[in-house]
C-alpha cells in the first residue's frame, strides 16, 4: 500500500511538472511568436511590458483571467462553458505518453521510477491519435453553442478540416510503426538510437522523408495554423468558432491551440527525428565521465527538436498566405492521402526485401 | 503469484494516464470557476447580442448547412476504419512476412478501388 | 479492486446509455454517448484489450459520433417533433426484448448447467495486445479480414450513391 501511495505521489509530481512546463512553454511561445513575426517583418514585436516585452505573456494572462466572460444571448450556457474545457483537456492529456527524456530509472525509497516518462503504454501513439480527434468536439460544440453564424460556420469548417487531416496523420505514421514494430513511443524512440541516420526520417531501407513531410503538413492543418487557419480566417469568419468567446474561455481555446502545437511537435520529434537521442551514439556527457548527467543532454536534444518544429510553425505563418477552403480539402484528400498511402506500400516492400 | 504482479504492472501503466486526465479536467474547471468569481459582470442587451458585422442579428443562427460536410464525415469514417486495420499489420510486419505483405497488398488494392471510385464520382470535390 | 473498477465503469455505461435516449436535447444525448464510449474503452483496458480500447475511441468517439453530431446539427431538430410517431413501435420492440431477456435469465437458472465464469486472459508482457491481434488477424483470420475490406468498399459505394443526388444537385 505504501508503494502504491509513493507511486501515486511520484506520478502526481511528474504530471504537475509536465503541466507546468507546458504552460510555461505556451507563455514563451505567445511572446516568441509575436517577436519572431515582428523580426521577420522588420518590426520590434511587443516592447512595452517589461524589458524587451518579456513580461507580455504575464500581462496577457492576467488580463484574460480578470476579464468579463460574456455568454451571448441565445447561447447554450452549459455547452458554451464545456466546449473550451473539452478542447483544453483533449490537448493536454496527450502529453501523458510523450517520452521527454531517456528511459533511465532512478531509485527513491526503494522503488524504481522513470523520471522522464509519465506512462509507457503499449498503444502510446494510438492514445494520442484518439485524443486529438476528441479535440474536434470542443470546436464543433463551441461553434454550435455560441448561437452565432460565424461561430457555427467556423466550427463546422474546423471539424471537417481536422477529420480530413487526421486521416493523413494516421496514414503517415504507419511507415514508422512498421519499421519500429511497436506503438509505444518509448520503444519507437529507443529503436532510433545511434547515429542520426538511424532516425526514421533518414533510416534505411526506406527513409520516411515523404511520411515526415505529410505528417508535418497535416499537423499544421490539424492545429488550425497558417496556412490552414481557415476555421478562424479573420477576413471572412471574424474569428471562426471562438468569435463569441472572451475572457478565460477564450484563453482556453488559445492554450489548447498552443498545447496542440507542442504535442504534434513532440510526436514529430519522437517518431521521425529520434526523440531524445542525440545525432551521435550515446551522449557526449557520458563519454566525458558524467554518466549521471547524461539525461541533461538527452532532454536538451528533445527540447531542441521540439523547438525546431515550433519555430517552423511561426516561420510558415510569416511566409505563406491562407488557402481557400476547397483548395484545402482537395490538397488533403487528393494530394496528401495518395502520397501517404504510396509511402506505406513502398516502405512495406522495401522492408520486406531488405530486412534489417 | 506472478500473474497478479503482471496485472498490477499492466494496470499501473494506466494509472498515471487516468491521473493526468483527472488533473487536466480539474485544472480546466477550477480555473474557469476562479475566473468567474474575480471578473466584473455588467451584462447589457447590446453587449450580449451576437456579432453580425454591426447589424442586428437575424434568423436562427443554427441554420442547416451544406450536406457536403456530412459526405466528408462519412468518407472519413470509412477510411479511418481502413487505416485502423493497418496498425496491427504494421506492428507485426516482420513476424508475418510475405503472407502478411500479400494480404495487405490486396487490402490496399481494395482501399484504392474505393478511393478511386470516390474520386471519379466527385465525392472528393468541395464545390 | 478490479471489481470496483468494473462496477464503476459498468454503472456509468448503463447510466449514460439511459441518458442517451432519455435526454431531450440531441446534442446532450451525443455528449452522454461520448462519455459512454470512454467508459467502454476503459472496460476494454481492464480486459487487456488495449488496441480495442484505442479503436473504440478513434472510430466511435472520433469518427462516428462526429458524424452523428453533424446530422443532429444539420437537421436542427426542434424538441417536439421527435419520436412521437415511433412510440407504439418502440414500445412493442422494447417489451419483446425485455421479455426475451427475462426468459433467458429464468432459463439459465433452471438448466443447472455450469455458468461460464469469465476468464481473464493472462497478460503477456512480452507481446502486447496489438501484436497479438496482428498475428492472428493476418494468419488465422485472413478471410474475414479481406471480407471486411470488401464490406468497407461496399459501404463506401453505398454512402456515395446515397449522397449522389445532393452532389449533382449542388453542381447544378
Structural write-up:
The complex is a heterotrimer of chains A (356), B (127) and C (172). Chain A is 64% helix and 2% strand. Chain A has helices at residues 2-40, 56-65, 77-93, 124-145, 149-172, 174-180, 185-190, 209-222, 234-237, 247-272, 284-287, 294-319, 325-353, and strands spanning 106-108, 111-113. In chain A, a hairpin with a 2-residue loop joins strand 1 and strand 2 (111-113). Chain A is globular. By secondary structure, chain B is mainly α. Chain B has a single domain (2-120), classed as NADH:ubiquinone/plastoquinone oxidoreductase, chain 3 (Methane Monooxygenase Hydroxylase, Chain G, domain 1). Chain B has four helices and no strands. In chain B, helix 3 packs antiparallel against helix 4. Chain B starts with a helix and ends in a 7-residue tail after the last helix. The mean pLDDT of chain B is 80. Chain C has helices spanning 2-22, 26-46, 50-75, 87-111, 129-137, 142-171. Chains in contact: A-B, A-C, B-C. At the A-B interface, helix 1, helix 3, helix 4, helix 5 and helix 6 of A face helix 1, helix 2, helix 3 and helix 4 of B.
Question: What is the strand and helix layout of this fold?
Answer:
The complex is a heterotrimer of chains A (356), B (127) and C (172).
Chain A: H1 2-40, H2 56-65, H3 77-93, E1 106-108, E2 111-113, H4 124-145, H5 149-172, H6 174-180, H7 185-190, H8 209-222, H9 234-237, H10 247-272, H11 284-287, H12 294-319, H13 325-353
Antiparallel strand pairs in A: 1-2
Helix pairs in contact in A: 1-10, 1-12, 2-10, 3-4, 3-10, 4-5, 5-8, 5-13, 6-13, 8-10, 8-13, 10-12
Chain B: H1 2-38, H2 45-48, H3 68-91, H4 93-120
Helix pairs in contact in B: 3-4
Chain C: H1 2-22, H2 26-46, H3 50-75, H4 87-111, H5 129-137, H6 142-171
Helix pairs in contact in C: 1-2, 2-3
Amino acid at each position: 500500500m505504501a508503494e502504491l501511495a509513493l507511486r501515486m505521489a511520484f506520478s502526481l509530481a511528474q504530471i504537475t511538472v509536465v503541466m507546468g512546463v507546458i504552460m510555461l512553454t505556451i507563455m514563451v511561445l505567445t511572446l516568441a511568436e509575436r517577436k519572431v513575426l515582428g523580426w521577420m517583418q522588420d518590426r520590434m514585436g511587443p516592447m512595452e511590458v517589461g524589458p524587451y516585452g518579456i513580461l507580455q505573456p504575464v500581462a496577457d494572462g492576467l488580463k484574460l483571467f480578470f476579464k468579463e466572460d460574456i455568454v451571448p444571448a441565445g447561447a447554450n450556457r452549459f455547452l458554451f462553458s464545456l466546449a473550451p474545457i473539452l478542447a483544453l483537456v483533449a490537448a493536454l492529456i496527450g502529453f501523458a505518453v510523450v517520452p521527454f527524456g531517456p528511459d533511465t530509472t532512478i531509485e527513491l525509497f526503494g522503488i524504481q521510477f522513470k523520471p522522464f516518462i509519465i506512462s509507457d503504454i503499449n498503444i502510446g501513439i494510438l492514445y494520442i491519435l484518439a485524443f486529438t480527434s476528441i479535440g474536434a468536439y470542443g470546436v464543433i460544440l463551441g461553434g454550435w453553442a455560441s448561437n452565432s453564424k460565424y461561430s457555427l460556420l467556423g466550427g463546422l469548417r474546423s471539424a471537417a478540416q481536422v477529420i480530413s487531416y487526421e486521416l493523413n496523420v494516421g496514414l503517415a505514421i504507419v511507415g514508422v510503426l512498421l519499421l519500429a514494430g511497436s506503438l509505444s513511443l518509448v520503444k519507437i524512440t529507443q529503436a532510433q538510437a545511434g547515429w542520426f541516420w538511424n532516425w526514421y526520417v533518414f533510416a534505411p531501407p526506406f527513409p520516411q522523408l515523404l511520411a515526415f513531410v505529410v505528417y508535418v503538413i497535416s499537423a499544421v492543418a490539424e492545429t488550425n495554423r497558417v496556412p490552414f487557419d481557415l476555421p478562424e480566417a479573420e477576413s471572412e469568419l471574424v474569428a471562426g468558432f471562438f468569435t463569441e468567446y472572451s475572457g478565460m474561455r477564450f484563453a482556453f481555446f488559445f492554450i489548447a491551440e498552443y498545447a496542440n502545437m507542442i504535442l504534434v511537435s513532440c510526436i514529430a520529434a519522437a517518431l521521425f527525428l529520434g526523440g531524445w537521442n542525440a545525432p551521435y551514439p550515446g551522449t557526449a556527457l557520458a563519454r566525458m565521465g558524467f554518466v549521471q548527467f547524461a539525461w541533461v543532454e538527452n532532454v536538451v536534444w528533445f527540447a531542441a527538436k521540439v523547438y525546431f518544429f515550433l519555430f517552423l510553425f511561426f516561420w510558415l505563418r510569416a511566409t505563406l498566405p491562407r488557402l481557400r477552403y476547397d483548395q484545402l480539402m482537395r490538397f488533403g484528400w487528393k494530394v496528401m492521402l495518395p502520397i501517404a498511402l504510396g509511402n506505406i506500400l513502398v516502405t512495406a516492400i522495401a522492408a520486406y526485401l531488405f530486412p534489417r | 503469484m506472478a500473474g497478479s504482479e503482471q496485472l498490477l504492472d499492466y494496470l499501473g501503466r494506466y494509472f498515471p494516464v487516468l491521473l493526468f486526465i483527472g488533473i487536466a479536467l480539474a485544472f480546466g474547471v477550477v480555473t474557469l470557476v476562479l475566473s468567474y468569481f474575480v471578473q466584473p459582470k455588467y451584462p447589457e442587451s447590446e453587449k450580449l447580442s451576437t456579432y453580425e458585422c454591426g447589424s442586428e442579428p437575424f434568423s436562427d443562427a443554427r441554420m442547416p448547412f451544406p450536406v457536403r460536410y456530412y459526405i466528408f464525415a462519412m468518407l472519413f469514417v470509412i477510411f479511418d476504419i481502413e487505416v485502423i486495420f493497418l496498425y496491427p499489420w504494421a506492428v507485426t510486419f516482420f513476424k508475418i512476412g510475405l503472407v502478411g505483405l500479400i494480404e495487405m497488398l490486396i487490402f490496399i488494392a481494395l482501399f484504392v478501388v474505393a478511393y478511386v471510385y470516390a474520386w471519379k464520382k466527385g465525392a472528393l470535390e468541395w464545390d | 479492486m478490479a471489481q470496483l473498477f468494473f462496477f464503476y465503469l459498468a454503472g456509468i455505461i448503463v447510466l449514460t446509455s439511459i441518458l442517451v435516449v432519455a435526454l431531450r436535447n440531441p446534442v446532450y444525448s451525443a455528449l452522454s454517448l461520448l462519455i459512454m464510449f470512454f467508459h467502454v474503452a476503459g472496460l476494454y483496458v481492464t480486459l487487456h484489450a488495449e488496441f480495442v480500447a484505442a479503436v473504440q475511441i478513434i472510430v466511435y468517439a472520433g469518427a462516428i459520433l462526429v458524424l452523428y453530431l453533424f446530422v443532429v446539427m444539420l437537421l436542427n431538430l426542434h424538441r417536439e417533433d421527435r419520436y412521437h410517431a415511433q412510440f407504439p413501435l418502440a414500445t412493442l420492440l422494447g417489451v419483446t426484448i425485455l421479455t426475451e431477456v427475462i426468459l433467458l435469465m429464468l432459463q439459465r437458472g433452471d438448466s443447472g448447467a455450469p455458468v461460464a465464469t469469465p476468464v481473464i486472459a493472462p497478460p503477456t508482457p512480452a507481446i502486447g495486445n496489438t501484436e497479438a491481434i496482428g498475428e492472428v488477424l493476418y494468419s488465422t483470420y485472413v478471410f474475414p479480414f479481406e471480407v471486411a475490406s470488401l464490406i468497407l468498399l461496399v459501404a463506401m459505394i453505398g454512402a456515395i450513391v446515397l449522397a449522389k443526388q445532393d452532389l449533382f444537385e449542388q453542381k447544378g
